């Protein structure tokens, strides 16, 4: 019984270790993707900065948040 419990503990510890490794890898990948998305989105302007903060925090719907023209910033701005 003790040997079986010890074996189960080792197996579960190994599984947990693998899950932590996987989680860390995915977290790193998501952080990189989020950074790239922020970089891509920085090229767009919204009607006002308050709307931008609300959309970014998930407090406001995204429809109608962008300027009606949908224009990008010019290269000089």
The low-pLDDT segments are: 65-77
The chain-level mean pLDDT equals 77
* End-to-end C-alpha gap: 71 Å
Write the H/E string, N to C: HH
Radius of gyration: 23 Å
Biggest β-sheet strands, sense, barrel: none
Overall geometry: rod-shaped
Helix content: 55-70%
Q: Structural class, please? A: mainly alpha
Quick structural summary:
With 77 residues, the protein is mainly alpha-helical.
Characterize the structure shown.
The protein is mainly α and 77 residues long. It is 64% helix and 0% strand. The protein is built from two helices and no strands. The protein has helices at residues 2-41, 49-57.
List the helices and strands and how they pair.
Blueprint: H1 2-41, H2 49-57
Give keywords:
single chain, 77 residues, mainly alpha, 2 helices, 64% helix, 0% strand, rod-shaped
């Amino acid at each position: 019984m003790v040997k079986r419990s010890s074996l189960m503990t080792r197996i579960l510890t190994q599984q947990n270790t693998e899950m932590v490794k996987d989680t860390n890898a995915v977290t790193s990948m998501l952080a990189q993707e989020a950074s790239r998305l922020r970089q891509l989105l920085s090229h767009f302007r919204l009607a006002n900065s308050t709307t931008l903060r609300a959309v970014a925090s998930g407090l406001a719907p995204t429809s109608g948040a962008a300027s009606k023209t949908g224009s990008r910033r010019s290269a000089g701005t």
